[in-house]
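Regression test attached.
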Amino acid sequence: AQSVSQHNHHVILSEAASLELGCNYSYGGTVNLFWYVQYPGQHLQLLLKYFSGDPLVKGIKGFEAEFIKSKFSFNLRKPSVQWSDTAEYFCAVRGAGTASKLTFGTGTRLQVTL
Amino acid sequence: GAVVSQHPSWVICKSGTSVKIECRSLDFQATTMFWYRQFPKQSLMLMATSNEGSKATYEQGVEKDKFLINHASLTLSTLTVTSAHPEDSSFYICSARPPYGLAGVHDTGELFFGEGSRLTVL
């Protein structure tokens, strides 16, 4: 069975600070990896995804994530956070193949202060 | 992007009553929808996969008779919490995956989520 671990439960940063949120997964085969974001009072929405190719993927709003297969990791990064990045961030993994289920991590609450 | 909408956004009910939550895909047809449950400060847990025209597939540990899922059309799935109890209080979220080629998006497994429905059972 696949699982996802997010180590940071609550992160507080000042504006302009750099961000890195950890995500590790366990799965025995090829995976598809996702980061979703949930802004206060809004739906979950996709931030970025990795399926194949360049392990460094870029998403919306200046976010990027790097897939390191040897470490089973897919950490989310942003060089300079903004107050508007305050949200809950979820890492998710799915075994490659359309029938596979999406498994979420426990989420990381990011709070950006002015 | 594709839009998924849930109704109601929040509901309060008495213990022992049943509550129905609707999930609609507004601008695409979804043969498959997913129902998740989220406890405070915890992750989204997949409850079941709703299949249009057939029975839902439930995850281990989810009671089929308690959480009734009906996917009667390509744009609507409903979750009915029967004989609700306080421990059923939670945030229920549905999601759906658009078919290949919608708005130029490949079927890469991206799910679109509803806004969630908060259930409080007194």
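Expected vs. actual: identical. The longest strand of chain A covers residues 87-95.
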